[in-house]
Each structure stands twice: as C-alpha cells, then as structure tokens.
C-alpha cells in the first residue's frame, strides 16, 4: 500500500473516531443549550480536536518509521494528480456547506448550531478529500 | 474517436534483465505504484514521464506506448 494511501486512511480513521462521536452527541442534543460561549460544548470540542491531533501525530510518526523510504519520496506526478482530483471534489462539498452555513443558517439558527454545522461541513469535505485519495489509490487511477 | 493507450513496459522490463518496477520508478522519478498503474493501463503518464521511460529502455517512444483505436460501437 502506498505511503500516501496509508496517511489518507489514518486521517479518515482519526476523523471517524473523534468527530464521529462528537457529531453523534450533537445530533442527539446531548449538550444542553446554554448562552454562548457554552463552556461545556467548547470543552468537548477542544477534547475532540486534541484527540484528533494526537491520533494524527502518533499515527504519522509510526507510519514514517515503518515506511521511512516512501515517506521521504516527494509526490510524483500521479500522487499530484490524485491530490488535485481529491481537493477539487472536496471543494464542491465545502463551498456548498459554507453557502448553507453562511447564507442560510443565520436566518433560522444561531450560536453553536452554526458553529457545529460549519465544523460538520469542513469534516465532510475532508472525508470526501481523503475518501477520493483512498479510492484513487485503490483503483490505481 | 475513442481509443486507449496500451504499453509494452512489462515486456521491455523483461528484456532489460527483468528490471523491477521499483528500479524503473526510481530511474524516472516516480513510485513503484505509479509504474504498476501505468503498466496496468490505469494511469496515463505525462509526456515527460513517457519519454523518460523510453529513454531508460533506449527505444523510441512508440515502442513503449501505442494508441489503439476502439472499434466503433453499433
């Protein structure tokens, strides 16, 4: 498996195990609505973001040690083509999400609802990004 | 005009002392997986990479890559 595919799997895994539970709690209205800044919600978000950083940090260190030679190789033309394709796909998700969050939601939502929606769309765009990377490497495209 | 690019990289590697995909990749500056994808016809290399591959095998470009027209569908 190419090094870049391994790092894409790692990023997908990190998002799934951190923001998966976070958004599940948000969707089930686990956090009581409180006036901003709603420190409980903020703390959960901070823990989630730190957990993701930790998983990514440890994972990248491990992958670099396990495939040191591959990790040192610069992106070749196929890697770059895959990057371009994945970023381009993710862009559409992100722009659609930002239109929703920035132009529609302010009329009927406020506070953490908007923040969480924006976070969700960013994560969705990242999932598409890394998903396209993994898919492209899997089918050797 | 529908067509596809085929290549003879596997044969050329065989005729060059069973050169490995990794070695070919190293010589033209791409990964082993990229060579595998090119060989399998899943990825079309840039013109520069195509010329580099031909140069490694010391053959003209058309001996490595061929453009094959698909028969028209009825």
- Percent strand of chain B equals 5-15%
How many structural domains does the protein architecture of chain B include? 1
Q: Strand count, sense and closure of the main sheet of chain A?
A: none
Judging by the overall fold, what is the CATH architecture of chain B?
Orthogonal Bundle
CATH homologous superfamily (4th level) name of chain B: lambda repressor-like DNA-binding domains
Give me the secondary-structure category of chain A: mainly alpha
Rg estimate of chain A, integer Å = 17 Å
Shape of chain B: globular
Alpha-carbon Rg of chain B, integer: 13 Å
Number of helices of chain B: 4
Counting copies of identical and different chains, the oligomeric state is: heterodimer
State the total count of DSSP E strands of chain B: 2
Main interface by residue count: A-B, 12 and 13 residues
Could you say how many structural domains of chain A there are in total?
A: 1
What's the SSE pattern of chain A?
HHHHH
Instruction: Describe the sheet with the most strands of chain B.
Output: 2 strands, antiparallel
β-strand amount of chain A: under 5%
How would you describe what is shown here?
The complex is a heterodimer of chains A (141) and B (74). Chain A has 141 residues and is mostly helical. Chain A has five helices and no strands. Chain A has helices spanning 3-27, 39-66, 68-72, 77-104, 112-138. The two termini of chain A are 14 Å apart. Chain B has 74 residues and is α+β, with helices and mostly antiparallel strands. Chain B has four helices and two strands; from the N terminus they run βααααβ. Chain B has a two-stranded antiparallel ribbon with strand order 1-2. Chain B is globular, with a radius of gyration of 13 Å. The mean pLDDT of chain B is 90. Classes of the chains: A mainly alpha (141), B alpha+beta (74).
